[in-house]
Amino acid sequence: MFGPPGSGKGTQARRLSQWLGVSTIATGDLLRAEAAAGTELGRELALLLASGQFASDEHVNRIVQARMARISGDGVILDGYPRTVNQARFLEQLLSERGLGTPYILHLDVPAEVIVERLSTRRHCASCGLVYNLLVHLPKVAGICDGCGAGLSVRHDDESVVIRRRLQDYCDQTGPVLAHYTSNCFTIDGNRQPDEVFRMAQDILDPNKTRRNGLH
Length: 216
Description:
It contains 9 helices and 7 strands, in the order αβαααβαβαβββαβαα. It is of the alpha/beta class. It has a single domain (9-212), classed as P-loop containing nucleotide triphosphate hydrolases (Rossmann fold), CATH 3.40.50. A 3-stranded antiparallel β-sheet has the order 5-4-6. Strands 1-2 form a two-stranded parallel sheet. The protein is globular, with a radius of gyration of 17 Å. Mean pLDDT is 85; it is low at 210-216.
């Protein structure tokens, strides 16, 4: 799943995971968990995340490789990875080792100003991971997570100055990654209602259609 921060790729990855019956690896969640754990690697990551920067290829590859080693089954949804061409090449090696072949690339395209509005109004539950938005997805009780009852908060990297820097970094780094993939790469209009985006993703990934089109 590709898309700038706030494009909705995390939400779509979770829905597709349930629909396809496969696991999801969300690199942002893995990195934040490592940072919160206080390990040597986690402390390095915490400094990067606090400033709105991306983690290095080496850091991300190590964490993804360790997570993929614990996954069983015929597939996995990667949310936010690979973010650079070097990561894409590393992923190709991992997929080859697991016999998973060429990945499908779903790119959620959303205008920058829409992203800034979405992220600056996001609220997160640090306890269970649910995400809310004060414009379109309010919790039932203000400031409280519907799922677990914990308090909601604003992440540092959802502040407007940090958001714009992250968007520029995303364009600079991920544009070449999308160009790297010459097959099975699909762009979806992410500036639509989540249900519409999900239906478009389903249409692309439907096993019967992909087999008929020679993509599987």
